[in-house]
Amino acid sequence: MAGETIDDRPSQEALSKCVHCGFCLQECPTYLQLGLETDSPRGRIHMIEALTDDKISATPTLTQHLDLCLQCRACETACPSGVEFGSIMESARAMIVQSGEAPWSWKIRTRLLAALLPYPKRIAALFIGLRLYQRTGMQWLVRASRVLRLLPGGLAEAESMLPELPARRFEMPSGDGDAYDRTVALLTGCVMPHLYPRTHEATVRVLERNGIGVVAPPEQRCCGALSLHAGDRLTARDLARLNVDVFLASGVEAVIVNSAGCGATMKEYGELLAADPAYAEKAVRFSSMVRDVTEFLAELPIQPPERGVEQRVTYQDSCHLVHGQRVRSAPRTLLRSIPGLELVELEGADRCCGSAGIYSFAQREMSLRLLDEKMRDVASALDLRTGRWPDTGNAPVIATANPGCMMQLEAGLRRHRLPGRVVHVVELLDEAYGAAGG
Ligand code: SF4
Ligand code: SF4
Question: What domains appear along the chain, each with residue ranges and CATH number?
């Protein structure tokens, strides 16, 4: 809302919950990599407290320590005092952005996100351009010429993250909504219809197979998670208000989300809009309707899949599902319900893969360190280096629950020249129900 004035600094009450015990340190990926207190949850809370009390200012060094935080919220799961670190970090970044003291890189990215995410036509135009880039041979030329290595900002590595884009975007099938006793709405999201239409298609098929009708209100917008994590709470609030209105008006029993980062944010719209008298109550009501697709399906319970999926699968917890939404068992329950599927637990499955929204672009070096470590664990869980797995047929599978993790893990397979494929949990279920391609 233009001209909105809400004090977004973290509250003393939230900060004072930290008793500095350090139980969170061994769960923090950046602390484990760097061994520095300033890159740990406890150290970051110290710095945010001092910043909030105006004892220090947002120097480039300080903002770098805050920016290195993945906002994975593993520290929240580990914390015995109930410190809500995700909310504290979002507020701290918003405070810095609103003060005008943010570094130029933060200013650029918040402006870019604000100019893109609320506008589906701009996002569609961007993906048309990227598809052309890939299909006209320009991508091959750019990579072969190594021209991106001459430009600053790790552009070459960022470009290498781009998966091969599907030829078409997701379009909601025009089914018979009246054929179902129960109806849910699907969050289609900002980039997911362009990057992973197959995941949305599988989600709709699996829900319908279980007697749940699905609608996708066309007026819905991006959930606002990327803006929120970057410190732009104004854009995030505008998007949240719009989605609250659209989904409440749709009259469905639940809002289904297959992107863990979006689901975590939408479950917290109540907090985001708490200071807005026109939306505070509606936002809480809306948030109570939000369900991750794995959570919703595991609660049904689902129809047993009759066709097996003879594959070896490992599961990477998406941080915003396991730490943000505390959904740990539902995806595993669904995977174990598939006949023939061998689920191999991944060492450190709930440790971040380094994706974290735009982190893989903004903090490229740390993102790659975490990805490389993750791929070592994946290779060992799935026996990828033994040559047991040809790159065809029943190649091993990494299942996860978030498009950012899917992109990052796919890039990891390419980077380490490993066989296998990355899918959303719901896609394996879809295959077990007999969908084409399974
Ligand atoms: S955030 Fe929690 S676990 Fe970490 S130091 Fe503070 S109280 Fe301890
Ligand atoms: S959110 Fe993740 S990266 Fe950030 S301090 Fe907590 S555990 Fe560390």
Answer: 12-102 (1.10.1060.10), 304-432 (3.40.50)
